[in-house]
Amino acid sequence: QVQLVESGGGLVQAGGSLRLSCAASGRTFSGYTMGWFRQAPGKERDVVAAIYRSGGSTYYADSVKGRFTISKDNAKNTVYLQMNSLKPEDTAVYYCAADPGTIATMLSGVIRYWGQGTQVTVSS
């Protein structure tokens, strides 16, 4: 069993930055592909970024490429999402996800564990 706890959300003006953190319990964190998803009101939950177990491979949604960076610290059992140049359309609840599969399987919707979510609001 893996428990995921997100933090770092909040209110920021457009153009600003936030860093989300997701702390994971368990001893096998390095064996999990981690991802960040987001869900805006009235919309589906979509992938934002993902990082493979070792951190050697990453994926970004087109809407965040060049602005967001995902990273994974296996020693701290934590995955981060650095968000720069934030836009009002980035406003959503951001969820951390973990799965022992690959980035491809995560993108296909196979997610074993979810965090509770953290709200990010970007004002114009």
Number of helices: 1
Q: Can you tell me the overall shape?
A: globular
Query: Mean pLDDT across all residues, rounded?
Result: 95
What's the SSE pattern?
Answer: EEEEEEEEEHEE
Number of strands: 11
Helical percentage: under 10%
Radius of gyration over C-alpha positions, nearest whole angstrom: 13 Å
- Unreliable stretches, pLDDT < 50, 5 or more residues? none
Give the biggest beta sheet.
Answer: 7 strands, mixed
Which secondary-structure class do the elements indicate? mainly beta
Beta percentage is over 45%
Please, what is the oligomeric state? single chain
End-to-end separation = 40 Å
Secondary structure elements and pairings:
Blueprint: E1 4-7, E2 10-13, E3 18-24, E4 33-39, E5 46-51, E6 58-60, E7 68-73, E8 78-83, E9 92-99, H1 103-107, E10 113-114, E11 118-123
Parallel strand pairs: 2-11
Antiparallel strand pairs: 1-3, 3-8, 4-5, 4-9, 5-6, 7-8, 9-10, 9-11
Architecture overview:
By secondary structure, the protein is mainly beta. It is 4% helix and 48% strand. It is built from one helix and eleven strands, in the order E-E-E-E-E-E-E-E-E-H-E-E. It has one helix at residues 103-107, and strands spanning 4-7, 10-13, 18-24, 33-39, 46-51, 58-60, 68-73, 78-83, 92-99, 113-114, 118-123. Strand 7 (68-73) and strand 8 form a beta hairpin. The longest helix has 5 residues, at 103-107. The model has no long low-confidence stretch (mean pLDDT 95).
